[in-house]
Every structure is written in structure tokens, then in C-alpha cells.
Amino acid sequence: MAKKLIEYYDHLNSKGNYKAINWDQVSDEIDKSTWEKLTEQFWLDTRIPVSNDLKDWRTLDDDHQWVVGHIFGGLTLLDTLQSQDGLAAIRKHVITPHENAVLNNIQFMESVHAKSYSTIFETLNTPEQIDEIFDWSDSEEFLQFKAKKIFNIYHSDTIDPLKQKIANVFLETYLFYSGFYTPLYYLGHNKLANVAEIIKLILRDESVHGTYIGYKFQIGYNKLREADPKAADDLKDWMFNFLYELYDNEEKYVHMVYDQVGWSDDVLTFTRYNANKALMNLGQDPMFPDTAEDVNPIVMNGISTATANHDFFSQVGNGYRLGQVEPMKDSDYDY
Ligand code: MN3
Ligand code: MN3
């Protein structure tokens, strides 16, 4: 175990003494640039006056209000999982001490996100509705399926740590987007502007989180591929099977939430598009045929507004790249 700790954490020196983190000696520059990016873009939900959206909110009919309230209930649940379990699992297998520091930042921001989602429905909905939304998110079958599936991966002591990174990226870059569809749809229609402001800030964070953890996955995966190609193939099979299994559940979740407003097909297209993005973060080829052209242009417009000027991967801004899926390169982190 001690040997494992020395290997993984580099926390102990040759005499077995505990080592202080040294930011002047960074072995992976991506750790440093990610730390700088994330700390620069720090924000809190308390800055955004969600109550200014009550006027728009009152123009929505009951079905649309139901969808807004409950997708934010679902997102609150999923980022509770990230903040309480997800980053703690990833942090057990860091390679550099600076990676640990970056993951601490990400973990705290997941708490900010979970708080922000609940701020939205706690501002827009009545006290009875708020209680119902929390009861719903704590018990809804298809929502709980994804939460429990990923929780079990995070908490397994015997699972390959690379699978925990896959689960993390799938949750972040894929499973959240059935929920993000709604605020982006309203952003595209110039409604719920303050809600959209929060979602824009969250998307800006998520674009960094997904690529950073995907990048750390790729380091491990490429090493595995060199050492044991068969094991790497098996891991890849597991990844794609897991993505299918989650998609199967996601179809049921999306129909249950969105059939009442007629958006299910559009939401599923958006979900498949983002599943491809998640695979891209992990250095894999896309699985679904859906591209940006297939996504509802109003939502695509919302997402390009959301990521313009502060994208992590592209120095020209607007990095939620349209129309193509390509693997990230180290140079994508230069900004
Ligand atoms: Mn989050
Ligand atoms: Mn995140």
C-alpha cells in the first residue's frame, strides 16, 4: 500500500517524509493551465438575480413549468453526486499533486452547481412544488438509475480507476444535457435570461472539467494500450456498452419528462450529440450519427452564445465546435 501511495501520489520523498506541493515544479503543464483557468472563472450563484425571471416564468403553462422545475431537480441530484462522490473517487488515483489541487477546485464548483440548480426552482416554484421536486428527484426511477449506476462505479474498490474517469466524463458531458436542453431552449427564445446566465457559467465550467478529466483518462488509457492492447480493447468495449446502457435509460427518462411538451425527439438528438462529445473527450470516435446540424438550431444558438468568448479549447472563442467531432489535442489547452 505504501508503495502504491508513493507511485500514485508522489506525496512522500525518498526518506518516506511527506512532501509539500511545489507549484514551481509542475510536471504536467495542463494541471497548471487548468488551475489558472478554473480559478479565473470562479463564480457564485448569489450574484445572479433569478427572481427577475418570475415574469417570464408566469407566462409558461403548467406542463412547461413542470418540465423546468423537474429538470432542475434532476440536475441538482446529479451534481450532488459529483460533489459528494465523483471527484473524491477520481482523486484517489491522481498522478501529480497539482492534479489533486485541480480536483479540489472542481469538487467545490460541483457544490456551487448543485446549489445553483436548486436556487432556480426554489425561486420560481411554490413551497409545495419545491418539496415535490425534491421528493421526485430522490425517488424517480430513471433518474435514480443513472445516479446509482455511477455511484456504484465511484465507490467500487476493485474497479479499474479508468472506468471511474469514464463514468465521470459520461455524467458531465453526456447525461446532464437532457436537462440543459430546457434552459438553452428558453435562452434561444429570449426567456428566463437569469436562469440562462447560471447555465452559461456552468457550461463554461463543464467544458473545462470534461476535457481535463478526459485528458487524464487518455494518459492512462494510452499507457494501457502500449502495455496490454487486449486489456485496452476490453476497456473500450466496456465504455461503449456502458454508453449504450445509459442511453437506453436516458430514452426512458427523456420521454417521461418531455413527452408532455412534445420535445422528446429533439432532446434525444441533443443527448446523442453530447454523447459523441463525451467520447471525444475520452479520445474515442463518435458512436451516434448525430451532428450539430441535427440539433434544434434554437438550442444550438443558445449553446454557442453560452460558450462564446470563454471557451477553453479555442483561442478564437466559441469552442463548442459546430459540425464536427474531433479528438482533443494537447495544443487545445493553449490559450
Ligand atoms: Mn457540474
Ligand atoms: Mn463538472
Structure description:
The protein is mainly α and about 325 residues long. The chain has one domain: Ribonucleotide Reductase, subunit A. Helix content is about 70%, strand content about 0%. It is built from 13 helices and no strands. The protein has helices at about 1-10, 30-40, 55, 60-90, 95-125, 125-135, 140-155, 160-175, 175-190, 195-225, 230-260, 265-280, 295-305. Helix 8 runs antiparallel to helix 12. The longest helix is centred in the middle third of the chain and has 35 residues, at about 195-225. Mean pLDDT is about 90; it is low at about 310-335. It binds manganese (III) ion (MN3) (2 copies).
Tell me the strand percentage band. under 5%
Tell me which CATH architecture applies here: Orthogonal Bundle
Ligand set:
manganese (III) ion
* Beta strands, count: 0
**Roughly what percent helix?**
55-70%
Q: Largest beta sheet, briefly?
A: none
Say what oligomer this is. single chain
What's the helix-strand series?
A: HHHHHHHHHHHHH
As a whole number of angstroms, the C-alpha radius of gyration is 20 Å
Q: Return the domain count.
A: 1
Distance between the termini: 39 Å
CATH superfamily: Ribonucleotide Reductase, subunit A
The CATH class is Mainly Alpha
Spatial shape: globular
Question: What structural class is derived from the secondary structure elements?
Answer: mainly alpha
Low-confidence stretches: 308-335
> How many helices does DSSP assign?
13
